[in-house]
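Researcher: Let's do a round of design. I'm pasting the structure tokens now; please hold your answer until I've finished.
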């Protein structure tokens, strides 16, 4: 069985993990109001664009690191989910 210290190490992120978690939160907040008037197809196109850049980064064929592309994907999808939740509360279907 794991000791308390080992469990803490598993639960507490490393410095590198904390860095990327901060980047995710910052990017989500920075773009919280972006594309709110755009269609579902537009949001999908933006996600797919970032997924393509993520794949290119993994293949070594993109200027930004794969981690940054993942941050952008996570941020876009998080803001999309928040948008859909707001629309649902207003009784409006998603665009």
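Researcher: That's everything. Go ahead.
Model: Designed sequence:
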């Amino acid at each position: 069985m794991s000791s308390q210290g080992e469990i803490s190490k598993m639960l507490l992120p490393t410095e590198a993990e904390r860095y990327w978690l901060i980047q995710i939160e910052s990017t989500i907040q920075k773009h919280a109001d972006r594309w709110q008037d755009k269609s579902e197809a537009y949001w999908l196109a933006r996600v797919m664009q970032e997924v393509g850049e993520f794949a290119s980064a993994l293949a070594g064929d993109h200027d930004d690191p794969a981690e940054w592309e993942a941050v952008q994907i996570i941020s876009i999808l998080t803001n999309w989910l928040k948008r859909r939740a707001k629309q649902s509360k207003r009784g409006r279907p998603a665009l």
